[in-house]
Amino acid sequence: MTMDIPTIFADIEPTPQDDGPEPVCAISYSPEFVEAHDYLRSVVKIDERSERAFDLTTVCLKLNPANYTVWHFRRRCLIALTAASHASDRLRDANLPTIDLASIEKDLDFADRLGGTNPKNYQLWYHRRALLECLLRVSDGNLPGEESSSGIVKIARKELEYVDKILGDDSKNYHAWSHRQWIIRTVNNSDLWVSEVDYSHSKILSDPRNNSAWNQRWFALHEGQISTRSNSSKASYRGKSILSLEKANDEANYALCGAKVDPFNESPWRYLISVLTEQWRFAQNSGDAGEVSIVSALLREYVRKIREMKQFWDEQQSSGNESHGPCVSMMSALVDLLEIFTNDEVFMNEAMILLDDLVEEDPVRRKYWKKRKRAIRDLLRKKKREPEVDLYAK
Amino acid sequence: KGFVSLDASHPWMVYWILHSLDLLGHFDLFSSFTSNANAKGDMTMREVEAFQKADLLTRVVSTLSHCWSGVCVEFSSRDVQGDDKLRELVRSQEITNKERNKDSGDGTVTIIGGGFGGGPSQMPHCAPTYAAVLALSIVAGIGLADNSSGKVRNDESEISTNKINQNNRNPYREAGELALNLLSEKRLPLYAFFLSLRERQGTHDDEEDERIAFRMHHDGEIDVRASYCILAPCKLLGLIDETAPTSSEKKINHAKGDTSSIISSNPLLAPSIAKHISACQTHEGGFGAEPHNEAHGGYTFCALASLRILNAVEQIDVDNLRGWLARRQMGYEGGFCGRTNKLVDGCYSFWQGGAMAVLDEWDRGATEMKGGGSEMIEGEREKKEEEYEEELDEEEEWERSEISFDEIMLQRYILLCAQDVNGGLRDKPSKPRDFYHTCYNLSGLSVAQHSSRLWLADDIANESGDDSCLNRIFGDVTVNIVGRTDPVLNIRVERVEVMLSQHF
Asked: What ipTM does the predicted assembly reach?
C-alpha cells in the first residue's frame, strides 16, 4: 500500500536535504526515499501534526527505522491526534500528554512488524517504552505496586509475552532483557517479581550458559526484594538490598548445582561468588560479630565444597577417563573465596598456589593472575606490620 | 547504496573513517611512526597529496556543520544565575534575539541550545554529537599541531611536526581552524543541550541517594552511553576541567580533612551523576546500560571512561571490574567478547581492551610515586619508599607499566582474524567488513601496542619525559604500528593535546 505523497501533500513545498557543498559520506538514496524525506522535512518544519503527517512517518520509518527524529515526530502526531479526537473525559483531564488505547495497540503492532528484521534497534524498543508509559498512565488509574491494579499487570504480562517471543529468536538479545527489567521495575508488582525468578530459572534450564538469564535472576531477587533483608539502612549494604541469609544459602546451592552441570560455565561460578561476597561485605559492615561468624561459616562451607569438586575433578583428569584439563573457572572461584580469609594462613597459601597454577593454565590472563598474587602478598606484608587494622572494613 | 540504515548516523561514519585514517598515519606529513613509504617520495607528490587531504578535511568540517541543529531548552532562572556558562550564553543570545531569552516571569529562561544530529535537519542526539565533536577535534588537532605546547611524542622519527612547521606551513592549518571555530561557536549551546538531557532516577525521597542520568536525546532512551557521549566532548571543549580535582588532589585534601575543594559548582561534576554511573555496575563487575542490566563491554567502557573524566573511579568496585574485564579476553582467539559466555568480536578490542587501559592508567596514577611528586604526605611516602625498595624487582617494574591483558594475543586476533583480505576490519571471520569495526579494531590495536601511561588530560602541563613506550608488538613493528589513541577519548593523543591547550 503505497502513499501518493506528492498528491496528498500538493499544498506543500518539499525541502531537499541540505548537506552543504561536496559532503563526505554521501549516501545514495532511492528516489522514493528522497521524496518521502523531502516532504517530511517540510511537514516537521511547519510542525503539522496530522493524519497525513503520521502516515508519512510510517513510510519514512519503513525505509529507515533508525531515524529517531521521525519516531519522535510520529509520537507527537499520535498525541496531537488523540487530543483532537478523543472524547473521554479522563484523557482530556490528564495533565500528561497521552495517546488513546487503540492507537497504542496499533503502534505496538507496527513496531513489532518493523522489529522483525531489526531486533537490535534502539528506537523501536524505546518507542514501545514510550507507548507503554502512556498506557500505564491511562489504564486503570491505580498506582503501581497495588495488588488490585490488574489492568496494569495485564498490560505488563502481555508485553512480557512479546519480549519472550523475541527472546525465542535470540535468547540473549540485550534490548529485550533490558525491556523486561524496565516493565517489571516500572509496574513493581510482587507477583511479577516472583514470576520473573521463575522465568529466569526456565531460561537457565534451557541454556545454563545464558548469562543474561543468570543476570535476570539476580535482578529479580534483589530489586524485587524477594527474600531480601529488610531495607532499613542497617540491614542493607551501601543502600542496596541484600539477600537474606536463608535465601543466600539457597542461591549459593542453586549456583553450585549449575556449576556442576558444566564446571566450565562461568555464569554459575560468578553468581555463586557474588552471592557469598555480598553476604560477607554486609556482615563486615554490620560490625556484628555474630553475623560475621555465621557468614564466615557459610563461606567456609563453600570453600570445602569447591575443594571437593576440584579434587574429584583432578582425579577424573589424571585417571585418564576424560581429559578436559584443569577447570579455570572453578579454580578462580576457589581463589576468590580463599582470598577473603586474610587471617587464615592455610587459605592464603592455598590461594597463592592456585594463582601459580592459573598463571600456567590460563596464560592469556597471566598478567592478571600475577597482579592478584602481588595484591595478596602486599596485603599479607601490610598485615604483618599492622595486625590491628581490619583490611576489609569497606 | 546500502548505507540508508546509517542515514541517522552521518557523523559516526565520518568519525569512524577519519579516526581510522588518522591511526594509520594518513595525515602525518612525515613518516613519524608508520611504514608510510609514500612519505619518502618526492616533495611535489607529497604536496599534492597534502592539498587533497586538506580539502577532504575542509569538506569534513562542512558536512558536520550541516548536521548541527539548534533546540530551545528551558532552565530555571536560579540555575542560570548559578552557572557562568549559561549566563554567558543568555548574554550572547540576548544580543541577537531579545524576545526569546527574556525571563518569562515565572522563573524560567529559554535558551537556544543545540547539538549534532544524525544528518541535516535531524534532532540533536548525544551519539552523533560525540562523533562530530571527536571528528572535529581530530581535524583541529591535525591542523593546529604547531600550536601545541608539547612535542609530538614518538621515539621513531627525528622529524617532529614542530620541525616541519619551522620550514613549511602546515597544509592542514585552514581546515583545523575551521574545525576549531565551529567547536568554539557551538560549545556553549552544546553545554545547554547536555544539561537539558538530565533525568532524575529512582525514588525522589532520599536526597543523599540522588542519581542523575542522561537521555540520549529529547524523548529518547536513557542509558549510560549518554553519560560518556556527553562527558567526552565536554572534556575536549574545556567544559568541565577547570574545577575537577584530580584523584591525587582529592587524596591530599581528604587526608587533611578538607572536603570543601571536592565540591564543585559545575553541574556536570555533581556527585549524583557519578552515582548513577556507579549504580550501573553489576554483581559480575562490568556495567550495564541501566542499573541491573547485564554487564556488557560497550556500556562498561562508557561508564569507566565517564568516571575517569569525572575523577570518580574510586567509587566503584575496581577489583570486581578488573576481574570481569580480564575474563573477557578469549583464551583461544585472543580477542575480547562483550559479555560472559558470548563470542569474540573485534570491536571489543577497544571497548574492553580500552577499558583495561583506562583502568591500568588509573591504577598507575593511584599508586605510583612520582619523582618529586607532591601527592604523598610525608609519612606515607616514607612507608611507600620502604615497600618499593623491598619488593620492586625488574620484572615487576616492567609489569606495572604494561597493559593488563595479553597484548600479543589481541594484536594477533585483530591482524589475522579481523582483517578482510581486501582491506577493512570486521567482527570475526565470515562477517563483512564495516567502518565501525574498522575503527574499533584499529583503536584496540593501538591500545594493545602502546603501553599504559599517565592520562594526558591529567598530565598535560607536566613534561614528565614519560615518552611513548611500546608493548610487545606482534609482527614487524615498522609495518604494524599505528598511532597512539587516548584510551578515554579515543582520538590520537596528539589531537587531544591540541584540544586541551585551547583557551575557549
From this structure: 0.93
